[in-house]
From TrEMBL, chain B:
BP-aspect Gene Ontology terms: monoatomic ion transport; plasma membrane acetate transport
Primary location class: membrane
Topology with respect to the bilayer: Multi-pass membrane protein
Organism, scientific name: Streptomyces pacificus
Name of protein: Cation acetate symporter
Subcellular location: Cell membrane
Protein family (similarity comment): Belongs to the sodium:solute symporter (SSF) (TC 2.A.21) family.
Annotated PROSITE patterns: NA_SOLUT_SYMP_2, NA_SOLUT_SYMP_3
UniProt entry keywords in alphabetical sequence: Cell membrane, Ion transport, Membrane, Sodium, Symport, Transmembrane, Transmembrane helix, Transport
Single GO MF annotation: symporter activity
Transmembrane segments: 6-25, 45-69, 75-96, 116-133, 153-171, 183-202, 305-329, 341-361, 394-423, 435-456, 462-483, 490-511, 523-544
Any one annotated GO CC term: plasma membrane
From TrEMBL, chain C:
Name of the protein described by the UniProt record: Sensor histidine kinase
Stored Gene3D superfamilies: Histidine kinase-like ATPase, C-terminal domain
Species name: Streptomyces pacificus
Record-linked InterPro entries: Bact_2-comp_sensor_kinase, HATPase_C_sf, HATPase_dom, His_kinase_dom, Sig_transdc_His_kin_internal
Cellular component GO terms held in the UniProt record: membrane
Residue span, Histidine kinase domain: 292-393
Pfam family, one: His_kinase
Length: 127, 577, 403
């Protein structure tokens, strides 16, 4: 390769600093305080409530199905003395059983949350 | 184990990671396929990437090792790791995406409009990230030591060099494809050998694993003790000893050890006859054996409490892990973030069906690992033990590759997210060069700690990271998303109190400061009280400082919960005046 | 031994707890700005007054609304030292601080009408039926803005007092100044927004003309392609002219570039070769609307200047931790660095440079000076433009197009 084939050299060019007129990091062209109208705020609160309900429902399911398992494994032994759940039962539940349950709970939640959002969109557009 | 295959497999994984990281962009050369290249990531790909990043070596090797040591109670770990995503999904996923935040500190700033809280959150992000990186590096050391006999620091240094090199050199142009590849690699690497092992197990008349009694050796076994251990004997044990036991030197003659506790010095070889019971390791306050602390603490009450401590830490801690939060940014919108999380739940749930299999088989076929403290190696040695021959070597190599993929993916994800926070909030100026510097820093600190503190029990840093994250970021995220009245002072106080006490308690336990009995259990598993403490502090301090509610709180909550297509509308007129 | 350790740990936990609370309180106090205050009573009084006024100022700087009035009313009342104080706008009571809200509040608006009209302070009897009520007299002072009287400040006292009249009038005047400043802030924000809108609406008329000409040339020979191009053109202009939102997703901006390149390709045919390399994780990054398309347009223009040659343009967007790095490179005629410097400083005018200085300015406006364009070029050396876009920046939220 000859030196003539090499492209001319490039130089780095940058623009002129704008100075300290605006601090970087705080230049919101649209300020955060864009409030909704009061009617909008009421709607948003109702959406939040319904989403929270859906979330708590799913969490409740999780606590009920999975969170109580340690008690379930321990209580019979405490109450009946020597009895303890058979090892295969623990293996089946913790090793495999809980995963589909959690996934189904999650899918149910996702559907419910999306339905809430659709209902909300319908409500707002129907206004 | 055939070292050549294993080394080749590890080299392949490293090479593939670097190549995909550098070249895994969507490239199009004609305008007609531009559309494909510029389409946002679909939930499937993104979910595989999230799962790939999440399934660390603690999942790949650690769970099997714990099950081998402690039995089915240890299955709470994978259950917790999975359930953490369910909690994340229902409470955090969509709003976190809609906040537009990349890191958790971004979220703190977006929600609370306070640079001070942002900086505090950054400290916790970096801290939790380093805690989580530490065991990745140590685990890599252990793995390479077992595979190739390299010194134990080598694996950690290798992972650190590969990750830092790839990230800092601008090689990780697109981490999504890397992580998605690593997920499928890890799943394959665990699934294929598992099928072979199960076939071998069935061919061996399917012996049952026993967890309620000492494991029994199936053949004449030599066990070399690398680190000094104390063993508990319930009955006299007849064994050939070459080395030092209880300070007495033996030269390979048959010896009978009496009931009680014995101290076996490092470098001693014990040779057991077939059918012998493997002695239990005597429990000590600080046990460096496992990835995470065993749940067994004596009586039922302790164990029940410890189980709930574990459940709370993992269920609530997942959402605050730095490398988990950043991946949600890749989803195009909140709804996609939810669907992605749903797929993630499926993918990691499927993965977690496998490690217990290795744990149970390890208890049958490699029980002596419990004695040497290398239980985490169970996954790696089983193919050679059970299948043997070339097939065994190849399967072992596949597992070694998978394990290394686990170190690389989690370590690179953590490094990138920690480095991102370091560039933004810690290092003075910004720029590409500073990101490189931050990457080196993000990796150097945990590497140095893992090298210096090789003998300090830091292996359960994963559990610690979860506990700290659950007590600090979980309150911040949950209250930030669902509670209007959260104030910056409240958030700061909650972060410090919840996260700080959890950190102090666990550190104190590991340093051996905790008295035996309940105080020990309480401090070893702090989540049960530190999570409520974090929530309570945040709520109470917020209630006393109502004047500091950020002015835009209502608008921000609206943006967090409103579907994007609605939020995109021009805001209603007449809102401000 | 265990007892000592336990005690030490308990102490450590307590200390940490206290530190947490203290940190919270300190963060809380910082905004309030109180501190130790040794000094003469006069100095203390002065400080107290100034401090009280400084508490009322920030809310008022956001304009006169129910929310800001509520926050400002308490410090204003303590400034005047009255039992009750009320802020109104032209129609309704915005805030009441102090006693007597139950029976005085609804009567206020009847009494302030005169002041709203005249713009002069008044002192009136409240005519309260309750003999126990200490609010016998009210001083009503106007709050004025640029467009006249915005509302009133009403201070209540037990008797007629010239001092109260004087004080209330002064306080009302001070509030008026704050409100005027608020209007000024607001119009400054509007000015910046208008500037951004004007900057981004600089679609070149040449481009429109050339695109339509290229489409027209296909109408007879390849009507299907003409139809597709026309649709691309429609999408492109719809995106460029959209009204709402200052920010967009990188994905949307890339789609706009794709439409632009389809139209440019129709004109230049095989002479234009484009390579696109996208890391999919940066597609959701929010960035100022139309800040990359002008750069691509610039690259294509430079490449096509030399008529006989094939021009290669490569666009890449890759992930770099907390930033996305976008580069746009062409192998065209390049530019004299000195001239480019003048163009970016807006000292020289150049047809192909308008886009560059415009984008540079907007990026600096939004992300700060660290994030301006970095251009590598030389005469005959092509040009490479690098843009670093932070993944998150307070106040930058993309609004997807469509509606």
């Amino acid at each position: 390769m000859t030196s003539a084939a090499q492209p001319p050299r490039r130089e780095v060019v940058t623009g002129v600093p704008r100075g300290t007129r605006r601090r970087p990091g705080h230049a919101p062209a649209r300020p955060e305080t864009d409030e909704q109208t009061p009617a909008g705020a009421v709607h948003v609160r109702s959406l939040m409530r319904s989403q929270l309900r859906a979330a708590l429902y799913a969490l409740g399911t999780l606590v009920l199905l999975v969170g109580t398992l340690p008690l379930l494994f321990v209580l019979p032994a405490a109450v009946l003395g020597s009895f303890s759940p058979s090892a295969p039962f623990v293996w089946a539940v913790l090793g495999a059983g809980v995963y589909p349950l959690m996934w189904l709970t999650a899918r149910r939640y996702v559907r419910r949350a999306e339905r809430n959002e659709e209902d909300f969109t319908g409500l707002v557009e129907g206004r | 184990m055939n070292q050549t295959y294993a080394v080749a497999a590890v080299a392949c994984v490293v090479l593939a990671t670097v190549l995909i990281g550098a070249l895994g962009l969507r490239i199009s050369r004609t305008t007609s396929d531009f559309y494909v290249a510029s389409r946002t990531v679909n939930p499937g790909l993104n979910a595989a990437a999230i799962s790939g990043e999440y399934l660390s070596a603690a999942s790949f090797l650690g769970i099997a090792g714990l099950v081998l040591l402690q039995g089915p109670d240890m299955l709470w770990y994978p259950v917790g790791y999975t359930a953490g995503y369910l909690v994340l999904l229902v409470l955090v996923a969509a709003p976190l995406r809609r906040s537009g935040a990349y890191t958790l500190s971004d979220f703190a700033e977006a929600r609370l409009e306070s640079p001070a809280v942002r900086r505090l959150a950054s400290l916790f992000v970096v801290g939790v990230g380093w805690l989580y990186l530490l065991p990745q590096l140590q685990g890599a050391g252990l793995t390479l030591e077992i595979l190739t006999g390299a010194p134990d620091w080598f694996g950690g240094v290798l992972v650190a060099v590969v990750v830092t090199g790839a990230v800092a050199a601008g090689g990780m142009r697109s981490i999504t494809f890397v992580q998605a590849f690593q997920y499928w690699l890890k799943l394959t690497a665990l699934l294929v050998p598992a099928l072979f092992l199960l076939a071998a197990w069935a061919g061996d008349d399917a012996p049952r694993a026993r967890f309620d009694a000492p494991a029994v050796l199936r053949q004449h076994t030599e066990v070399r003790v690398d680190d000094t251990v104390r063993i508990d004997l319930d009955a006299p044990l007849s064994v050939a000893v070459a080395g030092t036991v209880d300070g007495i030197r033996h030269e390979g003659r048959q010896t009978t050890l009496e009931e009680g506790t014995h101290r076996v010095e490092s470098g001693t070889t014990l040779t057991f006859p077939p059918g012998a019971d493997i002695p239990e390791r005597a429990s000590t306050g600080a046990d460096p054996a496992g990835w995470s602390q065993p749940l067994a603490g004596g009586g039922d009450g302790y164990q029940l409490y410890a189980t709930y401590g574990l459940i709370l830490a993992t269920f609530l801690g997942t959402m605050g892990l730095p490398h988990v939060a950043v991946r949600f940014y890749t989803s195009p919108n909140g709804r996609a973030a939810r669907r992605t999380t749903l797929v993630v739940l499926g993918l990691i749930g499927a993965f977690y069906l496998l490690p217990p299999v290795y744990g149970a088989l390890g208890r049958i076929y490699a029980p002596e690992l419990a004695l040497t403290g290398d239980a985490d190696a169970a996954v790696l040695v089983l193919p050679e033990r059970m299948v043997g021959g070339l097939t065994g070597d190849l399967l072992g190599a596949l597992l070694a590759g998978g394990a290394f993929a686990a170190f690389l993916s989690t370590a690179s994800g953590l490094t990138i997210s920690v480095a991102g926070v370091l560039t933004q909030d810690v290092l003075p100026s910004r720029g590409v060069r500073h990101f490189r510097l931050a990457t080196v820093l993000a990796m150097a600190v945990p590497l140095a700690v893992s090298l210096v503190a090789a003998d300090v029990p830091v292996a359960d840093a994963v559990g610690l990271a979860f506990a700290v994250s659950a007590s600090s970021f979980c309150p911040l995220l949950v209250l930030g998303i669902w509670w209007r009245r959260l104030t910056p002072p409240g958030a700061a106080a909650g972060l410090v109190t919840g996260g700080g006490t959890a950190l102090t308690a666990v550190m104190a336990t590991r340093a051996g400061l905790a008295p035996e009995g309940w105080p020990h259990t309480l401090m070893a598993w702090p989540a049960v009280w530190s999570v409520p403490l974090g929530f309570l502090t945040m709520i109470l301090v917020s209630l006393v400082t109502p004047r500091h509610t950020p002015p835009g709180a209502a608008a921000i909550l609206t943006r967090l919960h409103l579907p994007e297509d609605l939020a995109a509308r021009p805001p209603c007129e007449g809102a401000r005046r | 031994m265990t007892g000592t350790a336990l005690a030490a740990l308990g102490a450590a936990a307590a200390a940490l707890l206290a530190a947490g609370f203290a940190l919270g309180r300190v963060t809380a106090r910082r905004a309030a700005g109180s501190g130790p205050d040794p000094g003469t009573p006069v100095e203390r009084a002065t400080f107290h007054t100034l401090h009280t006024a400084s508490l009322a100022a920030p809310p008022l700087r956001a304009g006169l609304t129910e929310d800001t009035a509520r926050k400002a009313a308490r410090p204003l009342r303590s400034l005047l030292g009255t039992r009750a104080l009320c802020l109104t706008d032209r129609v309704t009571v915005l805030a009441w601080d102090g006693i007597g809200a139950d029976h005085h509040r609804e009567r206020v608006m009847h009494r302030v009408g005169d002041v709203l009209e005249s713009g002069r302070s008044q002192s009136v009897r409240t005519g309260c039926d309750d003999p126990e009520c200490p609010l016998r007299w009210a001083v009503i002072a106007p709050l004025t803005g640029e467009e006249g009287v915005l509302g009133t400040l009403v201070a209540y006292g037990p008797g007629e007092s010239a001092v109260l009249v004087r004080a209330a009038t002064e306080v009302a005047r001070w509030v008026s100044v704050q409100l005027e400043l608020a209007e000024l802030d607001c119009s400054r924000t509007r000015l910046i927004e208008a500037e951004i809108r004007a900057l981004r609406a600089q679609i070149s008329p040449h481009f429109i003309f050339n695109s339509l000409a290229a489409i027209a040339s296909f109408v007879r020979t390849d009507p299907e392609r003409a139809r597709e191009l026309l649709l691309e053109f429609a999408d492109f202009t719809r995106y460029s002219f959209r009204r709402h939102g200052d920010f967009t997703h990188l994905a949307d901006e890339l789609r706009c570039i794709e439409q632009y390149l389809a139209l440019a390709g129709a004109r230049f045919g095989d002479r234009l070769k484009v390579t696109l390399q996208i890391a999919p994780e940066v597609l959701p990054v929010a960035l100022p609307f139309l800040c990359l398309q002008p750069l691509v347009e610039n690259a294509v223009k430079h490449g096509m200047e030399d008529a006989g040659r094939v021009c290669r343009v490569s666009i890449s967007a890759r992930d770099a931790g907390s930033e996305a790095v976008v580069t746009i490179e062409d192998d065209g005629v390049g530019m004299d660095p000195a001239e480019l410097r003048r163009i970016l400083a807006r000292e020289a005018d150049h047809s192909s440079g308008i886009g560059l200085s415009n984008v540079d300015e907007r990026l600096r406006q939004v992300y700060g000076d660290d994030h301006g364009l970095v251009i590598e070029t030389g005469v005959g050396a092509g040009m490479k433009i690098t843009v670093r876009i932070p993944k998150y920046r307070a106040g930058v939220h993309s609004q997807p197009g469509g509606s």
